[in-house]
Amino acid sequence: ETGVTQSPTHLIKTRGQQVTLRCSSQSGHNTVSWYQQALGQGPQFIFQYYREEENGRGNFPPRFSGLQFPNYSSELNVNALELDDSALYLCASRAGGTDTQYFGPGTRLTVL
Amino acid sequence: DQQVKQNSPSLSVQEGRISILNCDYTNSMFDYFLWYKKYPAEGPTFLISISSIKDKNEDGRFTVFLNKSAKHLSLHIVPSQPGDSAVYFCAAAFQGAQKLVFGQGTRLTINP
């Protein structure tokens, strides 16, 4: 049972705008990761947060940034949106000392 | 650089028969592998994992086999049920590291 929640479910933005996506980790999970899933592809790792610090990043530009809060909830912020940012954004959490990540339902972002 | 590959975009299996989903990887340093199942409009759901020190792991109807020399893993579902129809992703990781590297997914359809 995952217990990871994300909001909003869907979002439509225009090119150049900024967006904030939110995630609430499963209880007891202190590590959160964000992934981008384009249509027809597997999820791609954006970054990971542990104890409110970013401790790993994939091949994404600096306009993708994040925050993790003391209650382990987190945010993904994307500035200067581009059309190619249209994707499903997934949040995943895991407990310290384990390797299995549990995913939320995702936020579908459409950039027009 | 696709480090994890699922070469079959789709697979169709009759209900009650065995479903075999395949995954290949290129990086011999991966030491932890996972399978996720994804329904439309939902996040990936963890199914089963295997560490590189094992060559087989079972959980109910699901069995994962790992062949390290061939850099190949497979997921067997026996017997297949209609509710198994979904997209299946394999993922690989370095144990203790941040990110999961996903394949492109295989759409499994179970026919009555």
Structure description:
With 112 residues, chain A is mainly beta. The N and C termini of chain A lie far apart (35 Å). Chain A has strands at 5-7, 10-13, 19-24, 31-37, 44-50, 53-57, 64-68, 74-78, 87-94, 102-103, 107-111. In chain B, the strands form two sheets. In chain B, strands 2, 4, 5, 9, 10 and 11 form a six-stranded mixed beta sheet that branches. Chain B has strands spanning 4-5, 10-14, 19-25, 32-38, 45-51, 56-59, 62-67, 72-77, 86-93, 101-102, 106-111. Chain B is mainly β and 112 residues long. Classes of the chains: A mainly beta (112), B mainly beta (112).
List keywords for this structure.
heterodimer; A: 112 residues; mainly beta; 7-stranded mixed sheet; 4-stranded antiparallel sheet; 0% helix; B: 112 residues; 6-stranded mixed sheet; 5-stranded antiparallel sheet; globular
Task: Outline the secondary-structure elements.
The complex is a heterodimer of chains A (112) and B (112).
Chain A: E1 5-7, E2 10-13, E3 19-24, E4 31-37, E5 44-50, E6 53-57, E7 64-68, E8 74-78, E9 87-94, E10 102-103, E11 107-111
Chain B: E1 4-5, E2 10-14, E3 19-25, E4 32-38, E5 45-51, E6 56-59, E7 62-67, E8 72-77, E9 86-93, E10 101-102, E11 106-111
Parallel strand pairs in B: 2-11
Antiparallel strand pairs in B: 1-3, 3-8, 4-5, 4-9, 6-7, 7-8, 9-10, 9-11
